[in-house]
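Do me a favour: review this protein, sequence plus structure tokens, and tell me how the chain folds. Record follows.
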Amino acid sequence: MRAKIRDTEIFFDVEGSALVVDGDQICSKPVAFLIHGGPGADHTSFKPTFSALSRKLQLVYFDHRGQGRSARGSKETYTLDNNVEDMEALRQHLGLDKIVVIGGSYGGMVALTYAVRYPQNVSHLIVIATAAHSGFLERAKEILASKGTEEQKASVQRLWDGNFENEEQLRQYFQVLGPMYSLRYDPTKSGIAWSRNILSVDAINVAFGGFLRNYNILDQLHKITAPT
């Protein structure tokens, strides 16, 4: 499904019904937005891992602008601010009240920023393997220098420089760096998962070559009011 919001078109998918039968009652399930990471990946990385949540929640997956199945546009618009505002516009487009917000990695940064900016619209906040400021970049470089292989160090340089040239280079990066992301990395399963993703080099280049270097919402976290 697609939503024409703001200056773009966002692809979204829904898993699980909103209304469920409970005896002689019809009950509404909370709605959760799942915010994918990258930037430059898409929502399919959540499937099927998060599908079990649909027993308790109606899940709304979506791709950030310029990524996955969402519309492409000027790469200068591929910013965290626009990701947050697109998310709010999608919430309004779907006619939703408060939502559960779930974000991992870069998606966690979007989730945190959304919860700071729109605390009245968040019922619960779950962030996974994420950060509230750009200090994670220097910490990542330290870990890579002490634990990374030569192949990993060479591959990640494109990330620091924000100069991936094509989708294949980005796919290779995620596969080579897989053991640095997960203690239970399985190259067989990872290869299948990444082959499903529609990758966007423009989105990740703009982020790591630009705005993520100055990202910092530490002094705003007190604005978050939802259980987190």
